[in-house]
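Marked as duplicate of an earlier ticket. Keeping the data here for the record.
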Amino acid sequence: MLPIHTILHPADFSENSKFAFRLAQTWARDYGARIVVAHVVEPPKAMGVEGVLVFQPEVNWESLHQRLCECYPADSHSRVEHIVVEGSIATEILRLANDYRADGIVMGTHGRTGLSRLLMGSVAEQVLRRASCPVVTVKQPARTAGALSSDMGESAATPAVGVRGMHS
């Protein structure tokens, strides 16, 4: 069996991300692994709106870190480390996976298709293609929204999970 010591969980505060975190917690408990929960903030961009430059507000890093800790807490069975970084989301996830020597990445996906995926790109797809460790993408099934047990036990519905293993 593949040893798992560190699981990277990219967090975006969505319900899909929180669902994936619960799966990461289950695996961390089963393997005695730690979870590194990471939120990536894209650098501020100036945008032109009707001839006026509009700048994004400054990020309150301390408040964002506190929110990350509250939304993705450790439980009695898992060790969790929280980090907030700035950069290109997919690039930073891949860098963090290497820096923390992650044995796997467990991330939520919004499951966009068609034009919205084409226009917005897919962070999950970029990570899947470029990661040097196994990647598990999790999309919360609609039938379980708001009704999942916190321990992902037998009573919880099965998540839609995609897995991509290591490549050479």
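See parent ticket for discussion. The longest helix spans residues 15-31.
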